[in-house]
Write a structure and sequence with these properties.
heterodimer, A: 586 residues, Rossmann fold, seven-stranded mixed sheet, 19 helices, 19% strand, B: 193 residues, alpha/beta, Pyruvate-ferredoxin Oxidoreductase, domain 3, six-stranded mixed sheet, 8 helices
């Protein structure tokens, strides 16, 4: 019988792997590059899967499932681990019942992130093992091994991917699901699962012993593999870097680490002893390099050649090792960039157009609306992390006496998914501490930036079942906020008038913008058209940054045209036109 | 056998990823090792998209380094030019001549260069211009220009026509198969001319 093969991304392979390994529950908050794992897990009916409102909740749901004895998957992007760090560090003490893997999808080079933190550091900090695959076959196969480690050593396991392992596709040989023999039932074991000081004091030494046992395991596990070749150069590497090394330096010897914490000290020393020169090639922090240095092993090259910042590549590794530089003509330097922009018809466009006009300081958040920071709109002036907009805006307003100076007034802008994630507590703080700031909640009923995942406001679950649709104005009212304004994001005058009222208010005001994401719901209005006789080519409409509009030239005549295939019919451009040149198609 | 490296470059929404999927499915069916890599996330909002497809006996890196692409498949002229440095010496450029304005051009803060075809030609001696949009329209749907491009590239690869057709039938929704097969063949013929 021939084996079944498929070409899968790392994320699809992890989903397949958890199904094969008998996982019963999977939980996540979406975040690039991790999102597709749960989107694929939901296609396996043997696994219960759900979106949580944030990563802390996702991990806590997972901890519950593990304590009840079920094999469990929790996934998030790297910065999500920051949110989930509180339960993670103590879950390290309680240990598991059913095995649990926590996927941390890191993003070196920040393709779609606000920082490039290397989460292997978290695993060392929390004293839990890390498993890293280097292609999709390993992404699938290592899941079962990681779950075995979790159960054998009574520990959560961090399963770290990077953008390149998560989003690259390669061939995978598929297997079948193996149900796990262990019973799923609640067993009361207070000293293990109730972390009072008295019990935590007993657990901590076990955690330290566990790491020592894992170090022994690291010496023999199949996850760590030596590929002896020419002994002149030996490379210690991991994850996607392994593929680059094999491509760039086919003749070198390699110690490929799949269990990247804790490290196999004897295996490393043995490998180092067999090669003339030792290189450590790892993306991100000098995580191996520092620990191997502490072992007393002489490293010839590490971060001196392979930087802390960004991604590696085969060509870069080859150039650094062989000391050659390749001259390449790069035409991209003088070309106009193609940054992402609000979709035609996006409800955020009008909001940011008016915020810019009002000259206020915009305290922003993480989501599609962060694109409001980019030119030509450029109306977001701070953005740090999920849920921070409202609290930062409150802090600003408390120390600034703006008076009538609009440039010193703060508007905090947050989306629905981010509000549910961690913005609700910020808003509660505002009303509790008598904030005089303005918060705008852009409610488009979806988690847009990651591709439109369901959230507590969507009315649907991950599995597509009907669910509650959380009522944001009612929630805000329940916090005790009296000034609640709702606005129509496609009526620019309405936005401006109501924002002026909000900015003049003495008390905390919340502006709720309700309009569904155009990726999911079409606007029922035909494309708009430009009357060439009226258009003066002033470019005012182009400042709303819509890809459906472009400036055309016919001799000396300059005029704007609207691509009818792209125009969603929102009419924002028509409202900024001073010459009434943009009208309805008749 | 050396690996074949195909770099696809276009704009979010042009079907670059479906085209990549056709390449990888054909390669796996031909019993080759294959890897494909793309970065998505921000690219969905009208940004630049590139996809790397590599196949051969054994493929390690999922990405194609600058100067290593055997084929550069451009889905839009500016995106083709943006990636010409990825082409290997003697490599082939096949690109759709259509123009899509970046948001910065649409907003009037930068200009779309007028001499893109000439600049592309300076990089690749073997350059084929395809009227992807026109041929897609001829096939019955402007959105099938990605499959026109697949057809054009397929003539350069030692893989049987029937295999490509089989994979198009497999990967596209049933009601779109016929028009995409037409688009595929129009792409093939465009290169032969």
């Amino acid at each position: 019988m021939s084996e079944e093969r498929a070409i899968l991304s790392g994320n699809e392979a992890i989903a397949r792997g958890v199904w094969e390994a008998g996982v019963r529950l999977a939980c996540a908050y979406p975040g690039t590059p991790s999102t597709e794992i749960l989107e694929n897990v939901k296609n396996y009916p043997d696994i219960y899967s759900e979106w949580a409102p944030n990563e802390k909740v996702a991990l806590e749901v997972g901890i519950g499932s593990s304590i009840a004895g079920a094999r469990t998957l929790v996934t998030m992007k790297h910065v999500g681990i920051n949110v989930a760090a509180d339960p993670l560090f103590t879950f390290s003490y309680t240990g598991v019942n059913g095995g649990l893997i926590l996927v941390s999808a890191d993003d070196p080079a920040m393709h779609s992130s606000q920082n490039e933190q290397d989460n292997r550091n978290y695993a060392k900090f929390a004293k839990i093992p890390v498993v890293e695959a280097s292609d999709s076959q390993e992404c699938k196969d290592f899941v079962a091994i990681a779950l075995d480690i979790s159960e054998q050593f009574d520990t959560p396991v961090m399963y770290r991917t990077t953008t390149r392992t998560s989003h690259s596709k390669s061939i995978v040989t598929l297997g079948e699901r193996k149900e796990q023999p262990g019973k799923v039932e609640l067993v009361k074991n207070m000293p293990k699962y109730t972390m009072l000081p008295v019990s935590a004091k007993q657990r901590h030494p076990l955690v330290e012993e566990r790491i020592l046992k894992l170090k022994e395991y690291a010496e023999t596990t199949e996850l760590n593999r030596v590929e002896m070749n020419d002994s002149k150069i030996g490379v210690i590497t991991n994850g996607i870097s392994y593929q680059y090394v094999k491509e760039a330096l086919p003749n070198v010897s390699v110690l490929k680490l799949g269990l990247t914490y804790p490290l196999p000290e004897n295996k490393i020393k043995d490998f180092a002893g067999k090669v003339d020169k030792l290189l450590i090639i790892e993306e991100g922090d000098p995580f191996f390099e520092e620990q191997i240095t502490v072992m007393g092993v002489k490293i010839d090259h590490g971060k001196d050649l392979f930087p802390l910042v960004g991604e590696l590549s085969a060509a870069f590794i080859k150039a650094q090792v062989e000391g050659v530089t390749v001259e390449l003509k790069d035409p991209a330097a003088g070309l106009p960039g193609r940054p992402p922009a609000f979709c035609p018809g996006c409800s955020h466009r009008g909001i940011f157009t008016i915020l810019k006009k009002l000259k206020v300081f915009v305290s922003g958040d993480i989501g599609c609306y962060t694109l409001g920071a980019l030119p030509p709109i450029g109306a977001m002036h701070a953005c740090v992390c999920m849920g921070a907009s409202i609290s930062m805006g409150h802090g600003m307003a408390k120390v600034i006496d703006a008076g009538d100076d609009m440039t010193q007034k703060v508007v905090s802008v947050i989306g629905d998914s981010t509000f549910f994630h961690s913005g609700m507590t910020s808003l509660l703080n505002c009303i509790y501490n008598k904030s005089n700031s303005v918060a705008m909640i852009l409610d488009n009923r979806t988690t847009g930036m990651t591709g439109g995942q369901e959230n507590p406001g969507s009315g649907k679950t991950l599995a597509g079942e009907d669910a509650i649709s959380a009522d944001i104005p009612a929630l805000v009212k329940a916090f005790g906020i009296k000034n609640i304004i709702t606005i129509d994001p496609y009526d620019l005058k309405d936005i401006e008038d109501k924002m002026k009222v909000a900015l003049a208010a003495e008390e905390m005001t919340v502006v709720v913008v309700e309009a569904p994401c155009v990726l999911r719901y079409r606007i029922s209005h035909p494309a708009w058209v430009v009357d060439r006789d009226k258009c003066t080519g002033c470019k005012q409409c182009l400042k709303v940054s819509c890809n459906a509009l472009s400036l055309e030239e016919d001799g000396d005549d300059k005029f704007v045209v609207i691509d009818p295939n792209m125009c969603a019919g929102c009419g924002v451009c028509a409202q900024v036109c001073k010459f009434d040149a943009i009208g309805e198609n008749k | 056998m050396e690996n074949t490296n195909i770099l696809l470059a276009g704009v979010g929404g042009q079907g670059v990823l479906l085209a990549s999927q056709i390449f990888t499915s054909v390669a796996i069916e031909a019993d080759l090792d294959v890897k494909q890599s793309e970065v998505h996330g921000m690219s969905q909002r009208g940004g630049s998209v590139t996809s790397h497809v590599r196949f051969g006996e054994k493929v390690y890196s999922p990405t194609i380094d600058p100067g290593e692409a055997d084929f550069l498949i451009g889905f839009e002229r500016l995106e083709t030019l943006r990636n010409v440095h990825c082409l290997k010496a003697g490599g082939t450029i096949i690109y759709n001549t259509m123009r899509i304005n970046p948001s910065t051009v649409a907003a009037g803060v930068s200009e779309y260069p007028g001499d893109v075809p000439e600049q592309i030609l300076a990089f690749g001696e073997k350059t084929f211009l395809i009227d992807g949009l026109g041929l897609a329209e001829q096939a019955g749907n402007t959105r099938s220009s990605n499959v026109v491009m697949v057809g054009a590239v397929s003539t350069f690869l030692p893989l049987p026509e029937s295999l490509w057709e089989a994979k198009i039938k497999e990967l596209l929704p049933p009601k779109l198969v016929d028009l995409n097969l037409k688009a595929f063949h129009l792409g093939r013929e465009a290169v032969k001319k």
